[in-house]
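Input record, target 12 of the design panel.
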């Protein structure tokens, strides 16, 4: 099953996240099918850039949104 979820990147104590489509059986840092955008919580205000059209496409194909990505899409 495909999931749209966050992948943690960045240095220790300075995280940023990429929004990726990946297989739910793989670890979150594993290979992704596609990268949809990013989320930087440390900037003021937090930067959220997600390709909404591609996210809709993957949801139509059966991908499940994680709760954190769902919250980010609602606010973006």
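The sequence produced for target 12 reads:
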């Amino acid at each position: 099953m495909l999931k749209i979820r966050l992948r943690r990147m960045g240095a220790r104590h300075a995280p940023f996240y990429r929004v990726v489509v990946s297989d739910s059986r793989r670890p979150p840092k594993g290979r992704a099918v596609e990268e949809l955008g990013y989320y930087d919580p440390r900037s003021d205000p937090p930067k959220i850039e997600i390709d909404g059209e591609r996210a809709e496409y993957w949801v139509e194909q059966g991908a499940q949104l994680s709760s954190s990505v769902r919250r980010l899409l609602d606010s973006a």
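The chain has two helices and five strands.
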